[in-house]
Amino acid sequence: MVPLVFITLSTPSLNVVLNVVVARMVPEEMLGRMGAVLSMGSMALKPFGPVLGGALAAALGGAVALVLLGALIGMTAAVAALSRELRAFTGEAAPSEHDAAGADAHPGPA
Description:
Radius of gyration: 20 Å
Largest sheet: none
Number of strands: 0
Number of domains: 1
Structural class: mainly alpha
Helix content: over 70%
């Protein structure tokens, strides 16, 4: 139950972080579409959680299913913690070649 309590308590802060990253990295004119894609994806996946949990509990027993899901959450956290890309991630979009060329071609007022 400890991993499930942890994930339940951390979900709101993870949601805020995801929204900030999306707002920083997605161009303003695409924010609505990105929000729709994320919303549709999460709504499409929601029914599978109870189905998977129920199938695991029926096949393995409730305690084993909780331990298995807790181990999966722990492994996911470990992989994320060991990822160099995630540790170096700042949430800022890298300037594209188009942005760099555009800045040089049309210098702004000094």
